[in-house]
Design goal:
The protein has two domains: about 110 residues, no CATH class; about 110 residues, no CATH class. Helices cover about 60% and strands about 15% of the residues. The chain has six helices and eight strands. Strand 6 and strand 7 form a beta hairpin.
């Protein structure tokens, strides 16, 4: 029974220690901010007492000028200023100490977050590299079509479609279409360009021309600015920003092993099931991002 209590106590302490470590940046930042406020209040209170010290200093200096022999004035003056200075230091020392400790807490919080961000960036880069290498192996063995189907959950289905022939007669024909999973994310950056997009056009030729034009514009912008985030490209295409899109993107550096040096929209025509069970035409757009470019921006 005693051993069980000790074991539970150890587990509890370990859990508490882990929680404190996990939230240490927030705790340190909060303590630092609180300390700065306390230090400011202490300094204000100390300032109220400063007037008395300065008045005593004036009286002491007046005595030096009127009562101290001329040859001792310089020495007495230095002594008086030193004594006043020491009193001022003692007066503000508590506020200064709290302020320094508070600033140290804030800097420590920032340092912990910086180290965690470095670790997360390294982990992201490792995962991204591993994923790209996996895709290369899939493409090499099974081809790009299989790679696409695995990433998007797409499958070929045969459907009937009503078309009008040259004589104006309607008839039903069967055709095969790629039906994609609307919840699939592909590389993690893929988007489906659907009728809900503000730039959608029913004319497929016009729509494909628009996508090519935006791709060309994005490349011009990349070469002009040196880098481009995924969110910037999303905005060009009418998509909403994402958290990943803030740091993922492209760098105009063709000599870098992780950079293509250009932007490519991997556009494919697909069909997505709607709420009525019908299939609506759409386009999947997967982007050849270089990965996390935040630390490589200059």
């Amino acid at each position: 029974m005693k051993n069980e209590i000790v074991t539970k106590l150890n587990k509890g302490l370990t859990s508490v220690g882990y929680t404190l470590k996990k939230h240490s940046p927030e705790i340190l930042a909060g303590a630092g901010a609180t300390g700065i406020v306390i230090a400011t209040v202490m300094a204000c209170k100390a300032t109220l007492k400063l007037t008395g010290i300065l008045d005593e200093h004036k009286e002491a200096m007046e005595q030096v000028r009127t009562q101290v022999p001329e040859e001792e004035v310089k020495k007495a003056t230095v002594s008086t200023y030193a004594r006043t200075g020491l009193q001022v230091v003692k007066l503000y020392a508590p506020a200064a100490t709290v302020g320094v400790l508070s600033l140290g807490s804030i800097l420590a919080s920032n340092d912990i977050l910086r180290k965690r961000n470095v670790a997360l960036t390294a982990a992201y880069a490792a995962v991204d590299k591993s994923y790209k290498e996996y895709r290369e192996r899939v493409i090499k063995r099974f081809g790009e079509e299989v790679d696409y189907q695995l990433r998007t959950g797409a499958e070929v289905k045969e459907v009937e479609e009503t078309v009008t022939d040259e004589k104006g007669k309607e008839k039903k024909v069967k055709k095969k279409i790629n039906v994609a999973d609307p919840n699939a994310t592909g590389s993690g950056y893929m988007k489906y360009f659907t009728r809900s997009n503000p730039y959608w056009e029913e004319d497929s030729q016009y729509l494909e021309m628009f996508l090519r034009a935006q791709q060309n514009f994005a490349n011009d912008k990349l070469h002009a600015e040196g880098h481009l985030t995924l969110n910037q490209v999303y905005q060009m295409l009418g998509f909403k920003d994402t958290k990943d899109g803030m740091i993922a993107g492209w760098i105009d550096d063709r000599n870098h092993p992780d950079s293509d040096g250009y932007i490519e929209f991997d556009v494919k025509e697909v069909y997505l099931p709607d709420e009525n069970g019908n299939y609506q035409k759409a386009y999947s757009i997967d982007f050849n991002v270089d990965g996390n470019i935040y630390d490589r921006m200059v």
